[in-house]
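Field reference: sequence -> structure
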Amino acid sequence: QEEELISLNECLAKLHHGADYDTTEVRSTYFKLFREKLDPNGNAVPFEVFRNYAMTVLDDLDDDPEAQEMILEQFVAEAESGVALFDRVGTAD
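Structure field:
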């Protein structure tokens, strides 16, 4: 979901920079990323589309499968932190 991706990254930005961080640029960045890389209309994407995108990102970061696994584990840990914040405060704002 487009809004889910945007909200999650707004929460992560606030975790890294503080609750008063202006997430306007984060919102713009992830809106653009979703539209350009996942779905041009902002529609939910099938798992395979997301998986292909994630594999491209991992391949661009490191071609070693073990390193990719560690990177993915870090992405998941960060996402879990963002979801926990979102669940606690109810919104990224």
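Note: The first helix runs from residue 2 to 17.
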